[in-house]
Amino acid sequence: MLDELCKSHLTIRNAVYTTSQQLQPLKSLQKLLIKEITRAERKIRRSKSILRTCDTAQAQEASTALQERIEQYRHLAYTWRCFGDAIAFLFMDKFALKQTLFNTHNVNAKQDAGFIADKEGLSKEWSIMENLLDKGIPALLTDITNTIRHGDVCIMIGPDPHLIEIKSGKFDGRGRRQRNSIRELLNFFETDEAEGLRGFEKIRRITHDTSEVVYVDAMNDCIREAMRSGTAWRSPEEGLYYVAITAGDVSIENILVELGVTQPMAFSLNEVKARRAWSPYSPFTLSIRNCRALFGFIWGEIYIAVFYEPDALQRLAECRGYKLEFQPSESEIAFELTRLGDGRQIRVASQMFFRLAFDFTSPAWILCVAIENLNRHEIMV
Predict the structure, then answer these.
(1) Helix (H) or strand (E) holding 64
(2) Taking the model in full, what pTM does it have?
(3) Distance between CA atoms of residues 254 and 273, nearest Å
(4) With left for phi above 0 and alpha for psi between -120 and 50, is residue 344 left, alpha or beta?
(5) What is the C-alpha end-to-end distance of the chain, expressed in Å?
């Protein structure tokens, strides 16, 4: 269903008028995701119910097995929502979608909606979403995504999400806060600036002069070769390496020695997936294009890692007249860039820099954007 939607989404996005028939794959996929997410949630509840009846003194082994099963069902529900994320990132701008993950009053991720099984307003939300699709308007239930944590239904016309909060009866205090947060986001998307959003004094959104450079094709090519030979690597840019492994007896250390890489930054995509911490980046369900490869990555049969040598970016910055200093790994700032001519500086957030691993973005492009923003007297956030 996602493949079908990928093939038709450009036609849908560029059409002056969209028919309900064109949006049928979008409706069918959401229906399936609701079914599978709620199925996983019911199994979590059932397992928890059984767990409460276990006598810890006599059934420790059974209790441990149940806790592991609950964790597996949680991961399953998360994975299904990654397909919901794929819908959102297919239709809308990933930099705009980033804002929908976080609270509007601080930099923390907003708490997710929790279980949708037996949710009181789900039928009404589905009815409204279905009605929009029937009118030829692309729409998405936010509860079937990991990233969109504001509103109940998202209208996907244009690059920015249009969020709708659906309530039955009067708004209580929580409902008013949710409504106000959505208003803040929509105002930011409309005006490209905001004061106090996510705790920042002022945020401005600026179009990049240079189109983003991504190496998704190189990553997929690397995975295809690994599925044939057991291991593969690609280096689409100096200092940047993609590694894919399907054979169980392959050592990452040996591969790095073969590549001549000594002290790289390392990103294990499998580990981030296992921690359910992929958002707000483009979901792997959209990046990994081969269905069999995607299935293998989801279930741990394919290991994918990204390595980057920071010296490569420092050399590139120096060639352009800048000094680049990386910050400690635990910092929210990835690096500080100083223009050698006048000492002016700009800091690039780790979240932006980490796109080199999870969005397969070119590090050189990230540096280019930092230089653009420095020249505009802007700070990247």
Answers:
(1) helix 60-91
(2) 0.92
(3) 24
(4) beta
(5) 35
C-beta separation of 49 from 71 below 8 A: no
d(CA 351, CA 183): 25
* CA angle, residues 236, 239, 243, in degrees to nearest 5: 60
CA dist., res. 328 & res. 340, Å (int)? 22
**pLDDT tens-digit series, residues 202-256:** 888 888 888 999 999 999 999 999 999 999 999 999 999 999 999 888 888 899 9
Token output for 45:
């509840």
Q: Cα-flanking dihedrals φ and ψ of residue 231, to 5°?
A: -155, 150
Report the distance separating Cα 226 and Cα 336, nearest Å. Answer: 36
Dist. CA 282–CA 292, nearest whole Å:
19
What residues have CB less than 8 Å from 192, skipping those under 6 apart? Answer: 204, 205, 206
Rounded distance between C-alpha atoms, residue 31 and residue 42, angstroms: 17
Q: What separation in angstroms does the CA of 377 have from each of 191, 253, 359?
A: 19, 42, 26
pLDDT digits (tens, 9 = 90+) for 287-300: 999 999 999 999 99
E strand or H helix at 93 = none
**Peptide bond before residue 280 is cis, with ω within 30 degrees of 0:** yes
The whole-angstrom separation of Cα 99 and Cα 186 is 10
Cβ contact 359:370 at 8 Å: no
